[in-house]
Amino acid sequence: MNNLVSSRAVGGACLLCRRGAAVSARVTQQRPHPPPLTRLSSRLLSSRQGGTMNVFDRNMKRRQKKWASSLQEHNKYDYLRDEVGSRVADRIYDIARTFPLALDVGCGKSHIAEHLSKEVVERLFLTDISDGLLRQKKESEMPTHCVMADEEFLPFRENTFDLVVSSLSMHWINDLPGALRQIHQVLKPDGVFIGAMVGGETLYELRCSLQLAELEREGGFSPHISPYTAVTDLGNLLGQAGFNMLTVDVDEIQVHYPGMLDVMCDLQGMGESNCVWNRKSLLHRDTILAAAAVYKEMYGNEDGSVPATFEILYMIGWKPHESQVKPAKRGSATASFADLSKISQSEASIKTDNP
Amino acid sequence: MSGPNVWTRSRERMRRFPDLLAQCSTEAAAYGKCVVATTTGKQELKKDLCAKEFEGLKACFVSAAKRGMK
């Protein structure tokens, strides 16, 4: 859904108007039964110029994250973030550099920094929309600074960071092209962005079971799983934001749960509940029962557990700089592609072919 | 977190859900098969297509819940 509509740079003034609009939207939401038309218009008002790109209720997401961070055993829902955080850290280690100043966008409880050493990142800024999560940040070697900020509006000056990372938070951003552009802005030239977000076919089991069950029980369905970015769009998104030397890859993580209810409980514990604007406010008991039965029948394993698939999209992009390797000029080739088949021959014979 | 209220009570009830569902595995499988069959065959999934199977599942679920209360 985060499609490739070009976005505008967001200035400070817009941040203010957005704040105000978001508050007014919340007030309308709290009315017991708002007529559909007013609700729609308030939704459009609360967005910036591009009304089409306001899919998620960011205020709701903040509340969900706050709720999740207030749970007594909040740590037991961290397994997915810890795993993906370590994989993002892995990708940082792949770059043979020391980054003096780094930024983690949507850090949660800082799941990347705990896997990093201070030889790689010397100072780290952490941002998240929920202060509850920031307060519970995990220990890390390097000094960190917490900033409570919306990922959609980064409060940093241009050309500030040598490295920007993000793990499992960008799938809730309304204006993904704009957010990537801002990340590009705060990066220094030759800085790198390494991100991970869920996308593609994530949670298709839950999506299908709920749809089938709602269709059979209620005669129609509403979105319970949010729309995701397709991996094929990611390259274009990064390219449009100005990054070059892109790397995009997909990882599939399958988690096995005792049942559908456990999948849903854990998602809630991660603060990953649905926050699409047009979500349905409740799921009927009959539908839950029906969906649980369908989930088990359709996807269940032999041992009685059910799988939930998370497709993690990793992206790496560099802010352009003169020192970076450029593609060679057109017509500068010294060998022909037609000779590719001869490459397997010994080096000596190739040399005689192309003196 | 606040003390017990309607949310924590319903949450508590939902905690028993997997147990109760496990007691009705045959009924759940029958209902599941009925719904899943529509994803492969020509039959289109409509409201109450598997009403009979669902009634069976729900009756079993409710009685299992009652048994648990005693």
From TrEMBL, chain A:
Annotated Methyltransferase type domain residues: 103-194
One Gene Ontology molecular-function label: S-adenosylmethionine-dependent methyltransferase activity
Subcellular location: Mitochondrion
A Pfam family: Methyltransf_11
Alphabetized UniProt keyword annotations: Methyltransferase, Mitochondrion, Oxidoreductase, Transferase, Transit peptide
InterPro entries registered for this protein in UniProt: Malonyl-ACP_OMT (IPR050602), Methyltransf_11 (IPR013216), SAM-dependent_MTases_sf (IPR029063)
Keyword flag Mitochondrion: yes
Methyltransferase is among the record's keywords: yes
Chief location: mitochondrion
BP GO terms, sorted: methylation; mitochondrial respiratory chain complex I assembly
GO cellular component terms attached to this protein's record: mitochondrion
Domain of life, source organism: Eukaryota
Similarity comment: family membership: Belongs to the methyltransferase superfamily.
Protein name in the entry: Arginine-hydroxylase NDUFAF5, mitochondrial
Naturally occurring in which organism (per UniProt): Pygocentrus nattereri (Red-bellied piranha)
From TrEMBL, chain B:
Biological source species: Pygocentrus nattereri (Red-bellied piranha)
Protein name in UniProt: NADH:ubiquinone oxidoreductase complex assembly factor 8
PANTHER family in alphabetical order: NADH DEHYDROGENASE [UBIQUINONE] 1 ALPHA SUBCOMPLEX ASSEMBLY FACTOR 8 (PTHR34561)
GO biological process, one term: mitochondrial respiratory chain complex I assembly
Origin: domain of life: Eukaryota
One GO CC term on file: mitochondrion
InterPro entries documented for this protein: NDUFAF8
